[in-house]
Amino acid sequence: MKSRVLVKTIFISCLAIGSIALSGFSSTPDAPQRIEVSVKKFAYTPAEITLKKGERVVLVLKTEDVTHGLKFKELNLNTKFEKGKPSELAFTPDKVGDFVGHCSVFCGSGHGSMTLTLHVTE
What we know:
Blueprint: H1 2-22, E1 33-40, E2 43-45, E3 48-52, E4 57-63, E5 68-72, E6 77-81, E7 87-91, E8 97-102, E9 115-121
Parallel strand pairs: 1-4, 3-9
Antiparallel strand pairs: 1-2, 4-7, 5-6, 8-9
């Protein structure tokens, strides 16, 4: 009987120590923020997105009309995506400011005014 109590006490102690040791440990890093962006002639929706410097993000770009692109020259980001084939643009903003992305695939007469603005804050 005493041996059962001793085994239970040791087991519970081990669980407690393990819990304390692992309390600050995470086996996976924080998942990036995922933001869906719908794209069509001649707009990105949403047209403005606010992000935090140093926090990972994935823009999930979807179009249902024609092939489009998105290029942020200042952030060195560029992607192209086709009708019905979503594209993921993963990055971590490393500077603060407002950055305007432009459609990088000519898509018609309103192409020049097709923009997406990223506001990156501290």
